[in-house]
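Reader question, answered in our methods column.
A reader sent in the components of a multi-part assembly and asked whether the whole thing could be modeled at once rather than chain by chain. We filled in our standard form and ran it. Here is what they sent:
COMPLEX SIZE: two components
ENTRIES:
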Amino acid sequence: MGVKKRISGCVAVANGVKLADVDVICSYPIRPYTGIMSELARMVADGELDAEFIHGEGEHAQLSVVYGASACGARAFTGSSGVGVTYAMEVYSPISGERLPLQMAIADRTLDPPGDFGSEHTDALCTRDQGWLQGWSSTPQEALDMTLMWYRIGEDPRVLLPQYSCQDGYFVSHILGEVEIPDAAQVKEFLPPYKNHHVLDVRRPQIIGAQIEPAMGPPLQYQRYQAVEGARQVIKQAHAEFAGIFGRSYDPFVEEYMTDDAEAAIFIQGAHAETAKTVARRLRNLGEKVGVVRLRVFRPYPTQEVRLALSKFKAVGVVDNSANFGIAGSSGVMLTEARTALYNLGDKVKTVGFVGGLGGEMITHDEFYRMFAKLKEIAKNGKTDRDGYWLPFEL
Amino acid sequence: MSFKEVPFAGTVPSPKRENEGMVTGNWRTKRPVLDKDKCTDCLICWISCPDACIDQSTTGLAFNLKYCKGCGICAEVCPSNAITNVPELDYAD
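And here is the structure of the entire assembly that came back:
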């Protein structure tokens, strides 16, 4: 059985990577994700983990190193934050295109400006359409568990796709939580060794990422589309197997909190969901019918599950912790995607966007009270005045 | 081309020397021409060609014009001035 420790999200992920027994790690420093790499460097130096630890000359190099490592048949790990994530942008699509299931941890940080060290989902959300799997953890325990789960899902022969394992910077990455670090034998049972059928091998020469003709573009993109879509089923299976082996269960796509008979709900992803839950619980104590729905997997977007979860409310407030300037609805990508999921239901569920927590600011209890009050008003009147509100300026 | 005809992830089973579906020499504006009397077979052009389109044949070096883009590096590096860049418009083909 595992050991319980109080550790941060960064150290939790490092423990997950160690348990996954990775072969190649490539680092480059940027706060806040650096905590993962310093812990992994210590593990390698102390002989706890047998892996090649390579220091890249930048994030573009980091991703290129793990790209090559994964193509050679190594289980590979890298990570970044903020502008580091966007600097490596060119390399993401080739990795998913060549179907190499490496993992990248992202501990969110704002882009420049404001360029502070605060958490914002903007960095990771920029990468959402690169053909990778992607999801957010809201606690250090979940961050460790998702490290193992993403490898298991991504390396499944039916999927073979890279994964972004995301967590909020600071709110998860640097705040200690009680984490059960599983036993290596349990992990071995859950996560079989990485095997890919198109690895580089001098005895069987082949080109990975060859220049192709335009006519090969549509079928290749269709292959990748099918892999991302097909991952849905594997995500469900992996979560069920994980619960069986480790005794911790997560709803694969959306977690519902106090949603029974709720009329209004906050729909949110990441660490701020925990604050939203606290406020929802207090409002429940006052007799308000409110709940919280937390999105766990962003890619592939769980359209059916989101539709099912949100269709029972009169009003849904979709919280965006990212800056999406000029987007439809003037709020954020969480709102546009939630609305697309709900579109076929007509006007049954009123949706409104709340942009909050930018620059790494807390989304405070008070702000969540104001959001729930706005949702109560929308549920009562059956109409919305506007698509979205930027907090704290507009609500 | 149908979905099933495309190799998994575009991976080509073994390196192919030439791909007839992707001939890229047709944007060349100058053609390298070798003076075999001056050529000493030093192979500096062969190793310098960025497109690996200089072949070593039994009758000496030959330019593979299906892929040569006329960059002129071979003429530039040749120590015995055996290679000349001739404008493509001087040729009928």
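What stands out: Chain B touches chain A at residues 1-3, 5-6, 8-15, 21-22 (CB under 8 Å). The beta strands of chain B are 30-34, 54-57, 60-63, 83-87.
Send us your own complexes using the same form.
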